[in-house]
Design goal:
This protein is of the alpha+beta class. The chain folds into two domains: about 180 residues, Bira Bifunctional Protein, Domain 2 (BirA Bifunctional Protein, domain 2); about 45 residues, SH3 type barrels (Roll). About 20% of the residues lie in helices and about 35% in strands. The strands form two sheets. It has a seven-stranded mixed beta sheet with strand order 1-2-3-7-6-5-4. A six-stranded antiparallel beta sheet has the order 11-10-9-8-12-13. A hairpin with a 2-residue loop joins strand 6 and strand 7. The protein starts with a strand and ends in a 6-residue tail after the last strand.
Length: about 250
């Protein structure tokens, strides 16, 4: 069920309320303390975009396999946009891009019960109908800019809910390899040579080969060597901007 509210501090905070159960979505027009990845704040003009959180209760999933939830959620988003004729890619770990521009930001927060997950909240911000952005933002884009038209936000969110529950059902049925393969095929920069930066400032060229089930990024360096990177161990260099590919999960 989709719950629409006028204002909250953060939809992820609101979604922690026990009244929201598996499959519920909390959609707020205004967030007074919206959170993004790496402690960044998330702001959005009222009435133009979608800022919401979805509650999942993956009690069957071991803590060590939590990245599969990121794969399911991001694939559901790309499925949703494809239904509207817009091609998108997943920037590791779980941003959604059109070309070299960011369409969606995601913050996933987990609760554990022993060795398994108990409750997951996927906070999602989609640039829908906004066409003017703060120049300080590095590389934003909206569906309206990409599609050349305005989008009905309620219908878009309903489409996402259906697609997300469908991808979640794949995970619940144990179709892990199917999800992993689909995630790899939709990765931003897959198989292309691009610059990356290490924490010490070292720049190098590499191509993305995929991602491990545990979430590490696999890069093939220009010298032919293969390396695996954890969150925060690598930066994407995009159109002159540096982006820390840190975790969107807690």
């Amino acid at each position: 069920m989709i719950y629409r509210i006028d204002e909250t501090t953060s939809t992820n905070d609101e979604a922690r309320d026990a009244k929201y159960r598996h499959g519920d979505i909390v959609w707020a027009e205004r967030q007074t303390a919206g959170r993004g990845q790496r402690g960044h704040t998330w702001t959005s003009p009222e009435g133009e975009n979608l800022t919401f959180s979805m509650v999942l209760e993956p009690r069957f999933l071991p803590v060590g396999e939590q990245f599969l939830l990121s794969e399911a959620v991001t694939l559901a988003l790309t499925d949703t946009f494809a239904a509207y004729g817009i091609d998108t890619r997943i920037k590791w770990t779980n941003d959604i891009y059109i070309g070299d521009r960011k369409l969606v930001g995601i913050l996933i927060e987990h609760n554990h019960a022993g060795a398994s997950l108990s409750r997951t909240i996927a906070g999602i911000g989609i640039n829908v109908n906004q066409t003017a952005f703060d120049p300080a933002l590095p590389n934003p884009v909206s569906l309206a800019q990409a599609g050349g038209r305005k989008f009905n936000r309620s219908r878009l969110l309903e489409t996402f809910l259906v697609r997300c529950l469908r991808r979640y059902a794949q995970l619940e049925r144990g179709e892990k390899e199917t999800l992993q393969h689909a995630y790899r095929e939709r990765m931003y920069r897959l198989g292309e040579q691009h610059p990356y930066r290490l924490p010490d400032g070292t720049l190098f060229q590499a191509a993305i080969e995929g991602v491990l089930p545990s979430g590490e990024l696999i890069l093939r360096h220009a010298d032919g060597t293969r390396h695996e990177y954890l969150f925060r161990e690598i930066e994407f260099v995009i159109a002159g901007k540096q982006e820390n590919a840190g975790p969107a999960e807690k």
